[in-house]
Amino acid sequence: MRWWLPPAASTYAGDIDFMFTLILVITGIALVIVEAGVIWFSVAYRARPGRRAFYTHGSTKAEVVWSAIPAVTVVILGIMSNGLWNRIKGRDSVPAGAYPIGVHAKQFEWQLTYPGPDGQLGTADDFTVRNQLHVPVGRPVVVHLSAEDVIHSFFVPEFRLKQDAVPGMEIRAWFEATKVDSMELGCAELCGMGHYRMRARVWVWPADKYDACVKQASQQFLDCLRPSPAEGATRRTGS
Amino acid sequence: MTSVAATAPAHGVHHAPQSFWRKYIFSTDHKIIGIQFLFVSLFFLLVGGVLAMQMRWALGFPGKPMPGAGLLPETMAANGVILPEYYVQLVSMHGTFMVFFAIMPLLVGVYANFLIPLKIGAHDMAFPRINMASFWMALFAGLLMFASFFVPEGAIRSGWTNYAPLSARPDLSGVTIGQQLWCISIVVLGLSSVMGSLNYITTIINHRAPGMTWFRMPLSVWALFITAILAVLALPVLQGAAILLLFDQTIGTHFFDPPAGGQALLWQHLFWFFGHPEVYILILPAMGMVSDMIANGSRKPIFGYHSMVFAIVAIGFLGWLVWGHHMFMSGMNPTLGSSFMISTLVIAVPSAVKVFNWLGTMWRGNLRFHVPMLNAVAFVAMFTIGGLSGVFMAATPVDMFIHDTQFIVAHLHYVLFGGSLFALFGAITYWYPKMFGRMMSEPLGKVHFWLTFVFYNCTFFPMHILGMGGQMRRLYDPTQYDFLKPQQPLNVFVSISAFLLFATQLLFAFNFLWNLKKGKKAPLNPWEDNGLEWSLPSPAPHGNWDRPPTVYRGPYEFSAPEAGSRDYLPQNEKLPTDREPASAATPAAGH
Question: Which of A58, A156, B210, B415 is deepest in the core (most CB within 10 A)?
Answer without folding.
Answer: A156
